[in-house]
């Protein structure tokens, strides 16, 4: 069986994030993942949703100190991804339904992927 998977990526402003996520949940989409990456002094946060083999991605760009609202009130399991964003990147997430307060992922260095930490990224310089 071959499935033609459609993927759409939409840039979303911070103030529109919750409205967009609520619309996807109402439309029957499931949360697939929340991913984060350093884009040179800021973060790109991608929220991926699926319904019938059609992916919808919301792309949010935020600065290192920007607080992001939790979507765990809409998609309960989002707390896993949101705690990971906080613990690895240092992104403040407000209103997580289960907030581990920085203890979800234990690392030798606090916020190892933070764009504001000193000393560079050892993984990139290896």
UniProtKB/TrEMBL annotation:
GO terms for molecular function: NADH dehydrogenase (ubiquinone) activity. This is Respiratory-chain NADH dehydrogenase, 30 Kd subunit. Residues 27-95 form the NADH:ubiquinone oxidoreductase 30kDa subunit domain. The lineage of its organism: Archaea, Methanobacteriati, Methanobacteriota, Stenosarchaea group, Methanomicrobia. Pfam families: Complex1_30kDa. SUPFAM superfamilies: Nqo5-like. InterPro entries: NADH_quin_OxRdtase_su_C/D-like, NADH_UbQ_OxRdtase_30kDa_su. It comes from Methanoculleus chikugoensis.
């Amino acid at each position: 069986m071959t499935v033609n998977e459609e993927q759409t990526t939409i840039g979303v402003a911070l103030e529109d994030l919750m409205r967009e996520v609520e619309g996807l949940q109402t439309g029957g989409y499931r949360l697939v993942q929340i991913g984060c990456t350093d884009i040179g002094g800021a973060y790109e946060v991608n929220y991926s949703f699926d319904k019938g083999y059609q992916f919808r991605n919301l792309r949010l760009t935020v600065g290192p100190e920007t607080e992001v609202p939790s979507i765990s009130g809409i998609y309960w399991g989002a707390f896993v991804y949101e705690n990971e964003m906080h613990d690895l990147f240092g992104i403040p997430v407000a209103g997580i339904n289960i907030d581990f307060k920085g203890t979800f992922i234990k690392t030798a260095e606090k916020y190892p992927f933070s764009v504001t930490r000193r000393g560079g990224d050892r993984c990139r310089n290896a």
